[in-house]
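#help-structures
NK: newbie question, is this the right format to request a structure? protein is Long-chain-fatty-acid--CoA ligase
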Amino acid sequence: SPLPWPGGGGRRALVWSLEKRLSSPRLMFPSWATAVAAGLVSLHFLQKLFFPYFWADLKYLLKVARYGLRVEVYRLRGSVSTALERFGALARRQPDKPFLIYEEQVHTYRQVDRRSNRVARLFLEEGALARGDTVALLMSNEPDFIHAWFGLAKLGCVVAFLNCNVRARSLLHCIASCAPKMLVVGADMLGTLEEILPSLQEDIRIWVMAKESTLPHVDTVLDKLEVASDDPVPANLCVAKNLKDPHLYIFTSGTTGLPKAAIISHLQVLKGAAGLWAFGATPDDIIYITLPLYHSAAALLGIGGCIELGATCVLRKKFSASQFWTDCKKYNITVIQYIGELCRYLCKQPVVSPIKIIHLYVSFIYSPLFI
């Protein structure tokens, strides 16, 4: 039936009907709602203009805060496991996954766990160490640095990372300041050891990562590791009684005087290990570590971050700008660390053909967290 409208005509009737409906009080927006909407739109554009990373930063901060709160709650309950205990769990859950790649040699989680067990067994049977003793580590980047670190930690020892670039008086000061019962030296650091050997305290037992040594009063490690058991040491030795107990000593660079030891607790190791995860790294990532392991960036964020994720790390003996992008292509690197001037050096390098850097997912993590 025809609708009632004034003046007739279908189109005019429709317009009249819509005008009546839109002018209804129920469909009119209040002035405050319009003002709020305009304000929100303005804030959105201002945020995009002046704070383009606001939401990404907020997401990161909330993620870190949630992790920190969870760790603190677990600490109060006494149920937090250390990074070393997490590594042991990963070695059981994913034993054949590569944990460490060094000079084209692959070391799986199980292999690293078992070799560190050999280190722990060796020193346990020697009877030279007790829980809580300090052991100084003078080694450059190599797999046995990690094996020695983990093995000594499994005995409940505090490990002091010595800067392998310091010499003479500064090195002797570092050793004396942490009062170690034992000093473990890498095979490539024998020249440095020979320089300081006459001045070392007689009560410090010295071990070198070699099969033989001509230096007096120096024991060798590698020959004894070949016959040592890879069975786990008693678990009570490495269980942390308090997460605030010291786990590592990491020395400052000494630019304002002699190097000083920063005490790194188990809790700080856990917080540092969450860095890669907080920045969005995943267990499928391959992390490239070129920084020295005696530094917190490589040891805590790098190695510790790989443990937190259950990921793989590629370790290089030292940083090389000319080989960096070649290694990224060779090992399918997805995450790298940087500190200081590394990025400036890398940007000056020619692009490695046929690699396209824009297609390489890279997370740059600046890491001056502890020293």
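mod (FA): yep, format's fine, and the tokens are attached above. The longest strand covers residues 246-251.
NK: thank you!
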